[in-house]
Amino acid sequence: MKLSFLNRGGSGIGFLGHASLVAPTELSSGSGAVTLGRPTGDWLGSHLPRETILATLLAIALGVFVVAQLHGQAAQPASVPASRDTSIQQTITRLETEQTQLKKQIAELRAQAETEQQQVSKSQTAAASLSAALNAQRAFAGTVPLEGSGVEIVLDDSSMPRISPNDDPDNYLVHEYQIRDVANVLWGAGAAGIAVNGERFVNSTSVYCVGSTILINDTRTSPPYHIIAVGNPTAIQQALRDSANLSDLKARVTTYGLVMKVEKVGSFTLPVFDGSIEMKHTGIVNGARN
Fold first, then answer.
1. CA distance 256 to 225
2. 3-state DSSP call for residue 149?
3. How far apart are CA 223 and CA 216, in angstroms?
4. E strand or H helix at 117, and its extent?
5. pLDDT one digit per residue (tens) for the chain, 290 residues
6. I want to staple 152 with a disulfide (CB 3.0 to 4.6 A). Which of 106, 225, 264, 285 is the partner?
7. Residue 148 and residue 230 in contact, taking contact as beta carbons nearer than 8 Å
8. Reduced to 3 states, what is the DSSP secondary structure of residue 109?
9. Is residue 138 left, alpha or beta, with left meaning phi > 0 and alpha meaning psi from -120 to 50?
10. How many other C-beta atoms can be found within 10 angstroms of the C-beta atom of residue 180?
């Protein structure tokens, strides 16, 4: 573009561009005049390519985006610490709440465990009591061996070599009722168990005579009769020495030579009752559960 300055007072001309001017216009000011050239309408389109315009617009947009990012990054550090502190505080609050709930659950579980332990202790005490009672009943019923201190008594027929013709021979023999009498004295002295010639005495034991044979629990036995009683040895011996007990048997011992003596004091084990148990006074209770 070329600019021409006309001054009536001088003839200087200045060139400021290289583009051609069309239809010069003259502006008057005082005594001088300035003539300007007006560019044509398509000067911008003809001298600037379309790609340059697009590149310029993209560069402007990119610059705006970069500036926005820089402003965002500059503002972010100020908000990060606040957000981190909030997150930490929320975590602490949540953990404290969980800790409180866990402590409450632990206290409840401890109380429940203590209650159950007391119940178990009561059950164990009751079970121990029932077990002791059951063992006593088993021992009394003879379903288990019975071991303990006791006394062994021997009953035997008379050892006299000659019998008077006027005497009854039965007076020189041990009879079933005499065995029963001795057993009753032993029970009365607190014996926990009795056995005669290996036959355990229970509540259903029978002792009876068939001819010259004595049957105990339907088992044939013969003299000498070894009667073992498990219990307090002192109490048992005192009961045997008591003059009020076994007076008939003691008289036969003196008169006819029957044998009744304490053979041994010590520890004994009574065998298990191996006979059949007959239930005479039992029945099913109505409404009983299996």
1. 17
2. strand
3. 12
4. helix 50-141
5. 444 444 444 444 443 344 444 444 444 444 444 444 444 444 445 555 677 777 788 778 777 777 776 666 555 555 556 788 888 888 899 899 999 999 999 999 999 998 988 888 888 888 888 888 888 888 777 888 999 999 999 999 998 888 878 888 889 999 999 999 999 999 999 999 999 999 999 988 989 998 878 999 989 999 999 999 999 999 999 999 999 999 999 999 999 999 999 999 999 999 999 876 666 666 666 655 54
6. 264
7. yes
8. helix
9. alpha
10. 15
Tell me the helices (H) and strands (E) count for the chain, helix number first: 5, 11
Pairing of strands 32-38, 4-6: antiparallel
Question: 255-266: per-residue pLDDT in tens?
Answer: 999 999 999 999
Token pair of 117, please? 């332990």
Give the type of residue at 239: A
Q: Which amino acid is at 105?
A: Q
Contacts of 179 (CB under 8 A, 6+ apart): 155, 196, 207, 214, 216, 225, 227
| Alpha carbon distance 227, 203 (integer Å) | 17
